């Protein structure tokens, strides 16, 4: 791809297309078994690698898993996930979520959980069904392709910022090809078994996983569309030493 080439669409169509790809991205929790060709995956990563990265460090490492390899990883995680004794002392390789949940973040977390479980008919306190639903993460929600992302442990927080832009680029590029994704921090807890099964070298740290495939639009959980705060709620414009909101 020539990064200096002219856009393939007129300005209005280009704006609409890019905006659609970003805004239509959402976390899909049920996929069709339809295969995603390797060439398609490679084309997504080909585009995503052009995301911004400090001093061109490019900290991302991607493990693409499918078929028997994906089934083997899912089975290895499930064996631990279903055993409370094996699960008890597991810890994430880094702190993705806050140590103390405060408003408004805890409210947003509860809201999305309530909305998802309501759609699925899972009542509050039904721990068995909650566990089964959460365990679907480790089957990549039946997507044909799983992505595991790692980063060199010597890198610092700035490289995780770069990584976030890379992940977003992967998801937006997938939307442009009619595919959907689900980025998953749920895999962090099982970083040791993942690195063992995939033979990831110890100097690499797990960042997250991601499901990739075609959404099963017949599944009720895929009707979930989370809300977002308006621009006015998180933006301050500074002009002539005065603060204004949108």
Automatic annotation (TrEMBL):
Domain of life where this protein originates: Bacteria
GO MF term set: oxidoreductase activity
Keywords per UniProt: Flavoprotein, FMN, Oxidoreductase
Keyword Oxidoreductase listed: yes
EC category: oxidoreductase
Keyword Flavoprotein: yes
Pfam families xrefs: Nitroreductase
Domain (Nitroreductase): residue spans on this chain: 22-214
Cofactor: FMN
E.C. code: 1.-.-.-
Annotated family: Belongs to the nitroreductase family.
Protein name, entry field: Nitroreductase NfnB
This protein's encoding gene: nfnB
